[in-house]
Specification:
Helices cover about 30% and strands about 25% of the residues. The protein is an alpha+beta fold. The strands form 4 sheets. Strands 4-3-5-6-7-8-9-10 form an 8-stranded mixed β-sheet, sandwiched between helices. A 5-stranded mixed β-sheet has the order 12-11-13-17-15, sandwiched between helices. The chain has a two-stranded antiparallel ribbon with strand order 1-2. The termini are far apart.
Length: about 325
């Protein structure tokens, strides 16, 4: 790790010192991002990323913060982001790939709602040049979800203890500097949940199974928690230890909305490591092969019973169509 890159954190996240460096690089970047979004103004710029989203200057600036921090770690072979959906080589002898969404929820940032960073860490085999064809179950070794709101928190997979933990960025007691403090150990997502966050809801017009599922949640007293940002809505599931987040498409009418490498796979990994479940309506997200750096995909994550219920609703009409 770059000697100038100092992260105040007493936790160890892996027995592999190189994997631990990747986590420290992400923590360092999230600390910088916290300051950046709090004390700078966000403006739209005249470009769009490869997915067609109008970029904010924040998107580009925060993307650079993460790339620079990962490069300084010295152990990441290559990285790819939603803003740069192609592999950028960082260290020739690196052991890992990192894929990330630098600023998830940037479309709601002007409303001052919570936003976040999502990252997945993938093992690199000798001679491997990219992630196409790989699965999260086979190759992902870590993931992190940060949330920037009234405070800065991060949920990540601790490889030492095989748990999903939460850290909070706090001032030291003497006020000298910030430090990451363990605030929850072994976060678990219970099988039953009463919160729902239905993304890509416009597909309800065509996808009758998704419509019926959302109507079931609404009619049976579930609590709606939907901000329009995947990172804060999924963060809510981890913090409450229950609930469901979904984003479902309909072939030929409404495309999948979320990016597989940068959003879908890392969140699904964290969810399953916390005892929850993930699905795309057919199989676990962790078993879906990467189709490229522009891969978009459906996702359902959260309490296992609720994920299974949603899948059953979706399958009813698929069976009838078949």
């Amino acid at each position: 790790m770059n000697p100038e890159q100092v992260v105040n954190c007493k936790e160890t996240f892996s027995d592999d010192p190189d994997l631990n460096r990747v986590y420290l690089a992400i923590l360092e970047a999230c600390e910088q991002i916290t300051l950046h979004i709090r004390y700078n103004t966000s403006n739209k710029i005249t470009t769009a990323n490869d997915f067609g989203d109008v970029q904010l200057d924040f998107d580009v600036q925060i993307d650079s913060i993460l790339f620079e921090s990962l490069k300084e770690s010295g152990v990441v072979y290559g990285a790819s982001s939603e803003e740069r959906p192609y592999l950028t080589k960082l260290s020739e002898n690196g052991k890992f790939f990192v894929t990330f969404d630098p600023l998830d929820g940037s479309s709601i940032i002007d409303s001052n709602l919570a936003i976040g960073t999502i990252a997945g860490i993938w093992r690199r085999s000798e001679g491997q040049e990219d992630l196409t064809g790989k699965t999260a179950r086979g190759e992902m070794v870590g993931a992190a979800l940060s949330c920037y709101g009234s405070r800065t928190n991060i949920v990540l997979f601790n490889d030492c203890t095989k748990t999903v933990d939460e850290l909070t960025l706090q001032k030291k007691q003497d006020g000298s500097e910030d430090e990451w403090v363990l605030s929850q150990k072994k976060m678990l997502i219970r099988p039953e949940g009463r919160f729902f966050s239905p993304g890509n809801a416009k597909s309800m017009k065509y996808n009758k199974g998704y419509r019926d599922c959302i109507q079931f949640w609404a009619k049976n007293g579930y609590t709606l928690r939907y901000s329009g940002g995947m990172a804060p809505d999924c963060f809510h599931v981890f913090m409450k230890g229950e609930g469901i987040f979904s984003s479902v498409s309909h072939p030929g009418k409404v495309k999948p909305k979320l990016r597989f490498l940068y959003e879908v796979a890392p969140i699904a990994y964290l969810c399953e490591m916390a005892g929850g479940q993930s699905s795309d309506g057919e199989i676990s997200i962790l078993d879906v092969p990467v189709r490229g750096y522009d891969h978009i995909h459906d996702i359902i994550i959260g309490s296992s019973s609720e994920v299974q219920r949603c899948v059953r609703f979706l399958q009813v009409y698929k069976t009838e169509a078949g």
